[in-house]
Amino acid sequence: MEAASQAAGVVVLERGSPPTPAPECPHGPTLLFTKILQGKEKGRRFYACSACRERKDCNFFQWEDEKISEARLSARKKYNQSHQPSKTHSDNVKRYKDFITLPLSKRKFCQECQLLLLVPEWERHSGHPVLTDISVAQLRRPSQLLSPLENKKTNAQYLFTDRSCHFLLDLLIVQGFKRVLCVGTPRLHELIKLEASPKQKNFMKSLLLDIDFRYSQFYPEEEFCHYNMFNHYFFAGEVRAS
What we know:
4-stranded antiparallel sheet, 4-stranded mixed sheet
């Protein structure tokens, strides 16, 4: 194995060919790391979370050569499952269909929980800041409805401006693309869906891949996949054709 970079610090390592299976944390398969000092490896190699750079955000740690008992593996599996979203993508698709049929006066969004609220759920969120009268236009721009995840050591969401999105969309149209894969670019995905109509000559389809599961509230399974691009991992085995 060779380090991907010889700069001082902690670097990601290749796992060989074919790669050995990596242990998993709540964010999917972990990555193999080592410390580099003056161009040389320093210390034992270890597995850690692919998405979080600080142990307080994801405390997974395992030495590469460490032997793990069956009991510990079982406990880890249960822990990973317990840290997945409480609702599946299919659940959220059904909720959205119920939500969109509500009259405007009954469409609410909890800003604290970042959740579209159905009427039976209002009481549980009575003490939270809530947006009311959620319009179809707002539902079509979820990146403006949702609060950005700002932890620089985990999500660190940086959203494109409308100007940047229009620039990219114009390029896609000029090039004649009909299918677009938006990896971590929810605003471009929104614009494609807003601007592209099946009746238009320049119609294109878009699939959003993003680690932010909140978007599953707004898109069906053929338009959004819960995805970790650092380890190329589809949560819950979601793989869709766009």
